[in-house]
Amino acid sequence: PGEFNGDKSKFRKWHHNMKLLLKGYHNLNDDQKILIFLSWMKGGEAELWANIHTEVNGSTPMSFATFKTELTTQFEDKLAQKKARNAIYTFRQGKQSLMSFMD
């Protein structure tokens, strides 16, 4: 999945790849799943967040469901939908806007 440094624009893809990675393992408990996620968080805000979580909450802080919620809350790009919508509105087909092209 590659390392994640906290870049919110790359979180969704990284998170998806991490979930795929976990599917390759069987019978992991919550602590093991969390540690796998934390081990791929290197550099930037992500590493700082991971370090704080392990120092404050022990080596593995909580249930995996709670961990994923906190992770998503922290790193999900809150403007992703707005950016995607804007990209559609500003997309051009040749010299025409997408909306003009579709009419």
From TrEMBL:
InterPro entries assigned: Retrotrans_gag_dom (IPR005162)
Ranges for domain Retrotransposon gag: 43-102
UniProt name for this protein: Retrotransposon gag domain-containing protein
